[in-house]
Every structure is written in C-alpha cells, then in structure tokens.
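ok so for the tutorial part 2 we go from a plain amino acid sequence to predicted structure tokens. step 1 is just haveing the sequence, like this:
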Amino acid sequence: MRMETKAKTIAWIVLGVCGMLAVPGIGMAGESQASGWYVAGGAGVNWISDMDQAGWNRDTICYPGDDCGGQDIGGYRWYYDLDADSGSMLEVAVGRRFGNLRVELSANHRENDIDQKFSDITYLDGSPVVPRQTSSYSSEVTISIDDLETSTLLLNVYYDFPLVHSRITPYVGAGVGLSYTKLSGVFFRDDFSCTTGCNASPAEFYNSFQDENLSDTVFSRHLYAGADYSLNDRVLLGMKVTYSLVNSMSDTGRYIDHPVPDLPNHTRISDMDHWSLTLGLKYLFGH
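step 2 — the prediction. this is what the tokens look like for a chain of 287 residues:
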C-alpha cells in the first residue's frame, strides 16, 4: 500500500472517531470550553503524491544526436516525474480560544527527499524530438534532485466539539497560508563525446551543466481533523491529520555551462498536495 493511501486511511479513521465523539455531545453545549490563550508545538510525518516537473528554454541548437529535419526549434520542453519519500514535519502555533472556537497563527516546516525520473522531451512547440539513426557523437545525461522543503505560515480556525468525555476533545478546522517552497540540488549534466570522429564541432561544445536550488512562495489551503487529551488543567496531548493543497511553484534557473551563454531555463513543479500526521502538545494559559 502506498504511503499516501495509508495517510488517507488514517485521516478517515480520525474523522470517524471525531464524529462518533461529537454526536452525543450536541446536547452538552453548556460544557463549552472557557476562552483563553494557548501555545502549541508538534512533530510528525508527511506524505506527498507523485509530483510533476515541467521545464523549458529557448535553446535553438540542433544537437548532433537528433534528427531535426529542418525543424524550427525555438527551444525545448522537458518533463519529469518526481517521487517523494515520506518526510518529517515540525510545527509551532499560538492561538486563542473563544468557547468552542479557536483562532490560531501557526508555522510549520516539511522536508521530503525526491527521486527524479525522466518522462519526455519535445521542441518548444510540442513537436517530438526524433533521435538520429547514426551519429558520430554520443552523450551521457545525469539528473537528480535532493529534496523539497516547504515552510508555511498559516491562519487557522478550529471548532472543538462539546466534550463527551472529561479528557477528550475532538475538533475539525481549516486554514490558509503562504508556503515557501525550495527544491534543493537540481542537477543536470549532459556530457558529449566522439564515437567515430567529430567532423562538425568539438564534442565539448554541446555540454550542458546545471546545479542549483529553485524556490517560490505560493498560496496553500489546509484541512484538519484531530483530538486532544487533557493530561491536566493546562497541558493537552493531541493527534492531528492535515490535508494541504499547495499551488504549483515556478522559478527560473541558469546553466553553469551551456552552448548558449547565459541561457535561462524555467521550471514548474505541480501536484504538491500532501498529507501529514502530527503528535503535539498544547499549553493553556489562564482564562
């Protein structure tokens, strides 16, 4: 079973438990929580579904391994599939309770290692790049991405269901925020060599090399379900499931080495939605 499927299963379980705990408490609204400030912190794991990477540049060179056939190149487009490993998550928050409602300002940080797999390359207009049947050149391509880091500042609103147990408080919530996304170690290297003698340009003329970090700040939306357990009058131990919808990130990079000097390239990462499961503590101040 894939990690994201497990996370969805956990989310539905928590939602179900919250629902079962909340229904009997509808008639107990008189036992609403008192108002007051609190601080919170937590740690956990997160899962991201497969992401998509698309990029493009305006490189007009016909490379020796391609059969350009008089094509008006204009540039290239490339596509990769990104498979994210499960990663870590940390969060801190400060909030205020108004009876059963809570308003909270929070910040969290996620990290996920990334596996990059080549999918396709076309010319800028979308037409396919056709390999040449025979060529006196050969090339070796190396690609990789280290990890994706996401740091988010959020405004959240929660509803704590009326207590049905002296210590357990289930809740649901929603939030909006800005996420700073950083793709570290974006590495691309294409090294050309001669196989039967290069009668046009030296093989190294066609070499390309990129190694840098890309980043963007994007809008994000978040849904929550969880429950807190009162350890005492001040401290709560809780578990929370979060589903986050994160907009696509885009950034422009530069090659360290390329046949076209100072040529920029553009990268877009989409489908960055993720699940997270956190275990946390809340400390309640005086009413």
